[in-house]
Design goal:
16 helices, alpha/beta, Rossmann fold, about 45% helix, DNAb Helicase, Chain A, 2 domains, 11 strands, elongated, nine-stranded mixed beta sheet
Amino acid sequence: MAEYQISATMAEQSVVGAILVDERCLPEVQRELRPEDFRLEANRALYAAILALERAGGKLDPVTILAQAWRMGAEVSQVYVRQLMEIVPTAANVGEYVKIVREYRLREGARETGVRLVQGADDMEDTAALIAAGIRQLEDLASKGSAGKLVGPNDSMLAYYRQRDAVEAGDAKGYVCTGYMALDELLGGGLLNSGLYLLAARPGMGKTTLALNIADRVAQVDPVLFVSLEMDTEQLSAKRISRETGIPSQKLLMQPLTQAEEDRAAQTARRLAGLSFWSNAAPTVTVDDIGVLARSIGGLRLIVVDYFGKILPPSAAKRYGRYEYTTEISADLKNLARTLRIPILCLCQLNREVEARQDKRPQLSDLRDTGALEQDADGVIFLYREDYYAARETVDPTVPSVLDVDLAKNRHGGVGRCKLAFSLATSKISGMSYRRKAGEDEIPEQFRIGGL
């Protein structure tokens, strides 16, 4: 270890010395190293001074760099600067020096994370929170760098053609279909990998119901994580069984069933148990907790979070105002989607100001109290039901409600609207691109996905 530390120190000096000798190598260093990656204070101070000068558009030479370091309060001698320039006669090998410094920093960071985990375990800290913090620290460590990894023109085109090859081969692994043809058409195929999508509406419009329908359709083929922060597992299960059996969820949860209903419910429960549908047990979670749950499910293709306002902020963010910590949660959700390379569908409840307008259809400005959520989202889907605001005596509960689905933002395509049929009693949502015959209560085969 001592030999490794010596080589790392020499590499640090060589990196700074290379910049002093030839400032043209700075971009290569900036892509990989931050001032905190330097172990020695003098090297860290000189590199910080170099970056400060570069940001200000100043001239980079040994004299100006040393003067800037002094202005920033560093105690670096002229003798040390001359020694660094003598160590590195040329900047040609700066890339190799950077690799050594970075490798040392990664090793040191991994060791620090390990020590922190051991200490937390010894202090009997909450295990789930401890693991989540450890995973996040390691991910942050692996991605550290002023600008991250640079992707060249050829690599960026190869990434695009890998996506196209999957599409041409009929492999939709680059995105996740919702199972609703009209909505998937608007989205351009489905929910893109690494995308953060919002499903937003006022309470009672059908957010959870539509999200459950989508989750079950995806779960017939690939694993789904449904993070419910409003309903217990038995309530979610009742809604799912109700959708398939036509038995109201209220009756499934609280009233006696006939033998025929018992049999239908049991048969449906067995079929739903065969879907790769995973949910959470804890009533409160942070984004880190969601990440821990997601990583424990092999082949996960979609995360649904119900809903944004119930996600706990990070401990350090609790001292901030609501806008600040919701902004942090939003950024963390987007980062999680990108890290896992799967879409996240996050439900969002709109505030009461919508009710005060004559036109109560949601619009993007209704998301202004959610921090940077609208900006971080790749897509925003609003739900609206006209009959929700109608007098109760005018609403026929046996007739499916018309659910207006408005794709109001789509970073990767156009926007638009479609309509779905929503049976309030049984939580079934289906397409409206066909006409039902009298007495027909099933979706025609061409519009069905695995029986859902």
